[in-house]
Specification:
487 residues, alpha/beta, Endonuclease, Chain A, seven-stranded mixed sheet, lipid biosynthesis
Length: 487
């Protein structure tokens, strides 16, 4: 009996060290992972043995299941026939960009293969009720198709009004597709709305399903975080807003109403948004739904000749590290003023250095974050960056009228970046995200007014007061900072 137990112990010991060796090898060969992230994983696995191994198998690697990975690897390649045909429609592309935007648009062209695209109409939306009202009107006027993807759809309030509008459109023959993240929209998939929508003819897809059976097939924390609405291959909505009623969503948390930004665009940009949606749909269903290529009639005579838009998508199958590169390029392009809003501030070392450098070379840099937060982990992890930012001359504003959820960057009131990506590791390198890059002075001035309103509703973090914070809070900040590469 003693021999048997000794053999079992030896077997467990052998399996344990084989797992450790396997994880160490995977961490070291991962080309995109930073040194800080690699060290965090190695320390976690070696110092907290079994727990570290368990966490690694859940969150350590970015992968889909085999079928999804195969699709993802081919859909956004430069050999993609649809993209090559889109590039032949030269009339939709903007030839020249403003000085501050040129570098970023050149980067996008090199990495994604297409230039900035013209638009007919570009509008920035801030009031959730008005956004929903406008959206419902567009849904009711749709003539061909409606496609949506959201991270969160929470039933109740004005979200139900959108559901009813979508159902009515489906019943009158409009082709409707709805893709929602499994984890973010768990309340929706447990509600009667799924069956009601499907019976009305709406195709509802649960993206990146969460279940125990999928634990060893892929990472469970890879999430579909995009927010996109496409109507008639012509109207596009995108931004930070989930399909929720802000007066009801997470009301019990006591942090107040969620504050978001959405952009509504008319024109050929719908084609590039459509191919991104098509990619996501194929990954989930295996079915191709390529959007129609834009013709000359899609651009109206009154189209904005000085406006140029790029769409940057991230996630498995899309150009690697693209959003991170875009953010760095935008920050380094700033000459006069840089304003950033984000609910989650846990930047990479490169982003932190770029922001501090901008302030040190004379750019007026402001970062607006929520005073009240829904994530304790991110809240504490973000605090460790404050000292370095403040010392560099960055102004940090803490928004006090709810949870500021909008994600925006404005460079010299000309170049705008608006989308779903937060300034944290998860958005930059893990989730399916989307960012609109807009080179338009009128749009930039509108965004500037909104950001100034955010600032007026915020408290400025005082450098001296911050330096006098309690010692125990500094210890907590360092602990959460240690975990930040894993966020």
């Amino acid at each position: 009996m003693n021999i048997f137990f000794s053999l079992i112990k030896c077997l467990i010991f052998l399996i344990y060290w084989l797992l450790i060796a396997n994880i160490t090898f995977r961490v070291l060969i991962k080309k995109r992972r930073s040194i800080a992230s690699s060290l965090s994983w190695l320390l976690s696995v070696y110092i907290i043995p079994f727990i570290g191994i368990f966490i690694w198998f859940f969150f350590g690697e970015l992968y889909l299941d085999k079928r999804q990975k195969k699709i993802a690897n081919r859909i956004w390649s430069m050999s993609n026939t649809w993209l090559n045909e889109l590039k032949s429609r030269t009339y939709i592309f903007q030839i020249k960009n403003s000085e501050v935007a040129t570098s970023l648009f050149q980067l996008c062209k090199h990495r994604q293969g297409i230039s900035g695209i013209k638009s007919n109409k570009l509008k920035l939306l801030t009031n959730t009720n008005k956004i929903i009202e406008t959206l419902i009107r567009d849904i009711s006027l749709a003539r061909k198709n409606i496609e949506m993807v959201f991270y969160i759809w929470k039933p109740g309030g004005i979200a139900d009004d959108v559901a009813m509008a979508l159902i009515k459109s489906a019943k009158r023959g409009i082709h409707c597709r709805l893709m929602l993240d499994s984890a973010g929209s768990i309340a929706f998939f447990r509600s009667p709305w799924v069956d009601i929508m499907r019976k009305s003819g709406i195709q509802v897809v649960e993206a990146l399903k969460v279940s125990l059976l999928r634990v060893f097939l892929r990472r469970l924390d890879v999430r579909q975080h995009r927010k996109i609405i496409l109507i008639d291959n012509y109207i596009v909505y995108s931004g930070s807003m989930n399909l929720v009623d802000p007066f009801l969503f997470k009301k019990s948390s006591g942090i107040g109403q969620w504050i978001d930004l959405m952009t509504r665009i008319e024109g050929p940009i719908a084609a590039t948004m459509g191919i991104i949606y098509s990619c996501d749909w194929e990954i989930e269903t295996g079915l191709k739904i390529l959007p129609p290529l834009p013709n000359k009639t899609i651009l109206k005579d009154n189209s904005n000749k000085n406006s140029s838009i790029q769409v940057i998508a991230s996630g498995p199958g899309f150009p690697e590290n693209m959003i991170h590169q875009a953010l760095l390029t935008a920050i380094y392009s700033a000459k006069h003023e840089l304003i950033m809003t984000t609910p989650y501030l846990v930047p990479s070392e490169d982003l932190l250095y770029a922001i501090c450098t901008a302030a040190q070379r004379g750019v007026k840099v402001s970062i607006i974050i929520p005073l009240y937060h829904d994530s304790i982990l991110v809240k504490w992890a973000s605090r460790v960056f404050f000292t370095e930012l403040l010392e560099a001359g960055v102004k940090i504003y803490q928004f006090k009228k709810g949870l500021l959820h909008s994600k925006s960057i404005l460079v010299d009131q000309q170049l705008s970046l608006i989308g779903t990506a937060n300034l944290d590791m998860r958005s930059l390198w893990l989730n399916f995200e989307i960012t609109l890059v807009i080179d338009d002075s009128h749009f930039g001035k509108n965004l500037f007014c909104i950001q100034k309103q955010y600032i007026s509703d915020s408290v400025l973090l005082d450098k001296k007061v911050w330096s006098m914070r309690a010692y125990w809070t500094r210890i907590l900040e360092k602990i959460f900072y240690f975990l930040s590469p894993l966020l």
